[in-house]
Each structure stands twice: as structure tokens, then as C-alpha cells.
Amino acid sequence: MPDRPPLDQPPTSRPGSAPLEPWNDRALPDLYRWLDATGLIRRLLELARDEDLGPAGIDLTGAAVGDESRATVGLVAREAGACAGLAAIPGLLDVFGVDVAFEPEASDGDWFESGTTLAIFTGPLASIVRVERTILNLTSRLSGIATRTGVFRDEMLAAMAGDDARTPRLYDTRKTTPGLRVLEKYAVRCGGGFCHRMGLHDAVMFKDNHIAGVATDRLAEHARALVENARAAAATAGIVPAFIEFEADSLAQLGALLDLETGMIDAVLLDNMSPEELSEAVALRDARRPSVALEASGGVSLQTIGSVAVTGVDRISVGGLTHQARSIDLGFDADG
Hints:
By secondary structure, this protein is an alpha/beta fold.
């Protein structure tokens, strides 16, 4: 693997750019604890247990073998990648009710080579086998997302000649596997990316379907009313939105949104714009409303992210970090 900057680094942001969301202001260990406190991870792990062990909570094959000999087994990488998901293993062992000792040999956010031992498990062999596949499924999937995120991040850094201060933030989207969202977003952070809103409940984002049919010359007035409605709904629920964002499909729509007073919105998502249009959008924003962050989105790939990054946008969101990620090949190797 080539030399890379550390993945779990304190988030940076240019003055006046995207607000610092609480899920992006935390180092990985604290982020995992924060996500775990929602109860969503525990529910996911219980579902993973129940789909394997069924209502009776039994491994029929293991019960037939009845082997309680002790073993030491390593979680070993069969290919290079970025590590994600080790933080979930203690909870998984607890949910499965197995007396297996877990010793991490790496940390979430680490790059690893093929052949690297990421963790060691010691305990009754039957208990290790009972939970083996779920551990592999989870860590392989999350490490695949972290790896893909890290590769996208590399492409941006290369395009920016390693200039971290000017490199846009790389964001995920809500294009996640139902039930796995908080862990998949955690994996994006493990790969050096940032999390967009966690769900519909914590930030406000008006997309094209929300403002369909609104003429450009009425957009600012309409947007102002929508923002006021959103703030009222949030206040009723006792929520402070992490940010308020609008999607713009054209430079004309962006111009109308920039007519809003400073502080009315935090960001504008520029959907499916060419690098030339993105550069024009940045110049327009810089001249009229520097406090508004610009986010490029829509079909961004490894082949195009460099040309998007150099336009001066603050954020780039890529749904493919999660929904196009390939699981990393990990396996269990027993000593001897």
C-alpha cells in the first residue's frame, strides 16, 4: 500500500464552510460510543444473532460436535485495505453470549496489508465457530466501505497535490443498507470521510422534489418560508438541526438561494454540474454569500472526483462510498 496520511484525523473546515456536525467532531472511539448509545447497533447485533441461531438460540452443528477444546484464532486479512468494525466485536460477543476473549491487533481506521492479523480470539472452539461468520460478515463489509472511502480520499488529495487545507470534505449519503446505516457511516469515518446527516431527523435538506415547480424568481421567497417551517418543526420536537441545505440544479437556482439573508441556510448542494459549472458556482458564492458551503454531488466517481475537487467546492458527497463498496476478504485462521 502507498504511504497515506492517517485516516482518523481531527476534522478541518475552511472558515465559513460547512458546519461541524456532532458525528464529525468526534474521534473514532468516541464516535462509536456515541452511535452505540442510540441503541441501534445493539438491535442490529441482536438481529444478526437471531437470524443465525433462530428462536431457540442454538447452533445445531456445534451442538452435534460438542467440542469444547480451547483454541486461538486470528482475524486475518486476505487482501490489503482499511480496518473498520473492530469496535463492534465486544458487543457482538456479548449478544451471542459466548465466553471468547477478544484482543485487537489493529485499530479501526488503520490501513493493513494482506496477511495482517487484525484481532485474536481465544476460547472454546465451538463458541468461536458460533460467532465466526457474523464477525467476518460485519468486519468485511465495513472494511470494504472504509477502504473505498480511503481510495476516494487519495484521489482527492492527489488532485489537490496533498493540500489538506484546500481539499474538500468527502461525504457519504443516506444510500445505505437498511439497518446498517450507523455502522456504514462509522466505516466512512474509518476511511477518512465524513458523515452527511445521519437521517431525516437531525438536519434539513430540501431536494429538487421538495421545490419542484417553483419558478426561479420565486425560489428565494419560497425557500425562506420552508426554512421558517423547518425551524418551527424542529423547535416543537426539541431539535436543533445540524444544518439547513438546499439542492440546486442550475446556476440560476443557486443565485436565487444566495439572495437569502446570511445565516438562513448553511449549504447548497450542486447536483450533476460539470467542473466548469462548479467553478462558476464557487465564484458566484464567493462574491455574494461566502458563508454558504457548496457541495458537489451526483455521479461522482474515482475518475471524476479529482476534477471536481479542484473547482473550490467545500464538500463532495458520493453515494457509492457505501452502496458500491465491495467487502474486503477477511478470514479466521487457527493456530497450528
